[in-house]
Amino acid sequence: MKMRKLPQVVIIGRPNVGKSTLFNRLVGKRLALVDDQPGVTRDRRMGEAGLLGLEFEAVDTAGWEDEDAQSLPGRMLAQTQVSLTGADAALFVYDARTGLTPLDEEIARWLREQEVPVVLIANKAEGNAGESGIIEGWSLGMGEPVPVSAEHGEGIADLYTALSPLIAEKAERMQIEAEAEAAIEADRMRAAAEAAAAEGIELEAHDPGAPLALAIVGRPNAGKSTLVNKLLGEDRLLTGPEAGITRDSIAIDWDWTEPKSGEQRKIRLIDTAGMRKRSKVVDKLEKLSVADGLRAVDYAEVVVLLLDATRGLEVQDLKIANKVIEEGRALMIAINKWDVAEDTSALFNGVRAALDDGLSQLKGVPLLAVSAVTGKGLDQMLSAAFDLREAWSRRVSTSGLNRWFEHALNMNPPPAPGGRRIKLRYITQVGTRPPRFVIFGTRLDDLPASYERYLVNSIRKELDFGAVPVRITLKSAKNPFD
Q1: Backbone angles phi and psi of 148, in degrees to 5
Q2: Strand 367-369 vs strand 302-308: parallel, antiparallel, or unpaired?
Q3: Pick from 392, 412, 429: which residue ends a domain?
Q4: Which residues bind GTP 2 (predicted)?
C-alpha cells in the first residue's frame, strides 16, 4: 500500500448525523454523496483536508448500526471499525438536535476502549435547538463536546483548537518529509529534461512515473469491488451478494509490483457504482451514484469495463464503453468470474466479435479474462493498462508524422467529388491524452466520413497508437483575400 504523507483522522458516528457533510466541509469539495436518508455512505472515502492551515487525511465512514455481522449493515460496521486501525485521531460525531441515543453511547464505549484520541463533535448545533444536546455530550465522558454546523461551516475554529494538539506535531514532521521527497523528485525530473534537451528530444508534460488513474466500471454485481480488494490484498471495499452495494466512487492510491521486473508502479484505483440502464435508474441515490461514476471516468486515464462472465456482453456494456470512448479515455475490457465461466473459448470469441461489431469506431479494444476471486489475469490487466496509457500519452515527432501523412495520401488519395480535388496539405499533432491532430487543406467540408475513418485507423496502425481514441480536426486554410 501507498505510504501516507499526512496524519489520518477518521470520522465516526451513527447514520445521518452529518459525517459526510463534515467530510466534504473539511476537504473543501463535495466528494462524498450526501442525502437526507440515512445509510448513504457505505465504503470508506479518503480525502486531503485542511483546517485553518492544519493539513491531514480525512476518512468518511459508514454509519454505525447495531446489526447482524453477516448483514449488509453489519459488514458496513466492520469496515468502519477497521478504519480506525493506524489512524491518528477520530472525530466522533453525534446529532446535537436529536441528542444522545443508546447507539451513540455504544459507539462511545467502543471508542474509549481504543488507543486513538477522540474529539467529540456535536453537529447540527446552529441556533438554540442544539443547546441541550451539547450539554448531554458531557455524559459520554469524552471531554467537552465541540459544537459545529458542518452544513453552514460554523464552529470550525473550535474544531481546530480541539484537533490541533493531537496531530499538529505529526503533520509538521510528515510535511517536512514530503517536501524533501518532492525536492528529490524535482531534481530527477530536471536531470531527465536536461538529458533529453541534449539529445534534441522534447519531453511531454506527462510524467510516466505519475500514478496511473485506473477506473473500474461496469454493471451492478460484475465484481468491481471484489476485484479491487483482490488487487489490494485486503477487504478495503464492502462486497456481498447484494447488487448495487457501492455508491460513492472510491479512489485508492496503491503501489503495484510488476512481476517480471519487480518495479514498483504507482496506481490510483477508482471503484465506481454499478451502472444500470437509464430507464431502470429511478432512485435519487442511484442517480447520484451513477453521476459520480461518470465523473470518475472523466478523471481517469485508463478505464476497465468489467463484464460478468456468467451474463456475457449486454447492450448496457456497449453503452458504457461508448461513453468512455466519447470522453476520450483509454478503454480495456475484462471478463470477470472466469473461474466459474462455462465454454470459455466460445464466450471469449463471442465477446470479441460483439465488441468489434458494437464498437466499430475503435476496433481491437484489449480484451482479457480475469477472476477477482482467484487473481487470474490481474497482473496482465495492469500491465496492459500501463501500455494503454503510454499510447494514449504518445506524441509523434514532426518528421515521423509527415512521413506517415505523405504515405497515407499516396496509398489512398482523397476523393474528388464533382471532379474537384480535395487537397490535404499538412498535419500537426496538437495534443495528447487522447492524441489529437489537426489536418489543414481545402474543400474539407466535402471530405467523406469514410476517408476520415481511414486516416484515424491508419494513424492507430502505422504510428503505434493501438486501440486508443484518436481525434482528428479538419481545418481549411484562411483565404488571404477574404
Answers
A1: -140, 165
A2: unpaired
A3: 392
A4: 218-225, 271-275, 336-339
Residue that is last in its domain, among 169, 187, 220: 169
Residue positions forming the annotated binding site for GTP: 13-20, 60-64, 123-126, 218-225, 271-275, 336-339
Contact 61, 19 (CB under 8 A): yes
Same domain, 430 and 388: no
Compute the C-alpha angle 386/460/312, nearest 5°. Answer: 65
Secondary structure (3-state) at 265 = strand
Q: Is residue 241 part of a domain?
A: yes
Whole-number Cα distances in Å, 344 to 30, 252, 318, 351: 43, 32, 20, 10
Distance (Å, rounded) from C-alpha 128 to C-alpha 149? 12
The predicted-structure confidence for 303-327, as pLDDT tens digits, reads as follows 999 999 999 999 889 999 999 999 9
Confidence of residue 175 (pLDDT cuts 50, 70, 90): confident
Residues 31 and 132 in one domain: yes
Q: Over the Cα atoms of the chain, what is R_g? A: 27
User: Angle, to 10 degrees, between the axis of helix 284-299 and the axis of helix 315-326?
Assistant: 50
Q: What is the rounded distance in angstroms from the CA atom of residue 25 to the CA atom of residue 29?
A: 7
Domain identity same for 238 and 331: yes
Residue with cell 461518470: 294
Residue 156 CB-density burial (10 A; 0-12 exposed, 13-18 middle, 19+ buried): middle
Q: Are residues 93 and 132 in the same domain?
A: yes
- CA 289 to CA 304: how far, in whole Å? 18
Q: Which three cell numbers stand for residue 236?
A: 478495503
Residues 240 and 352 in one domain: yes
Report angle CA 400, 405, 411 to the nearest 5 degrees. Answer: 125
Can the peptide bond before residue 211 be classed as cis, meaning omega within 30 degrees of 0?
no
Whether residue 418 is contained in a domain is answered as yes
Query: Is residue 406 in some structural domain?
Result: yes
Pairing assessment for the beta strands 146-147 and 212-218 based on DSSP bridges:
unpaired
Instruction: Kindly state the average pLDDT of the residues 226-233.
Output: 91
Helix, strand, coil fractions of the chain, as percent rounded to 5: 40, 20, 40
Find the CATH number of the domain harbouring 413.
3.30.300.20
Q: What is the pLDDT of residues 426-453, one digit of tens each?
A: 999 999 999 999 999 999 999 999 999 9
Q: Which domain holds residue 338?
A: 212-392
Tell me the mean pLDDT in the region 186-194. Answer: 59
Cell numbers for 256, please give them.
503495484
Q: Is residue 353 part of a domain?
A: yes
Cite the annotated binding site by residue number: 13-20, 60-64, 123-126, 218-225, 271-275, 336-339
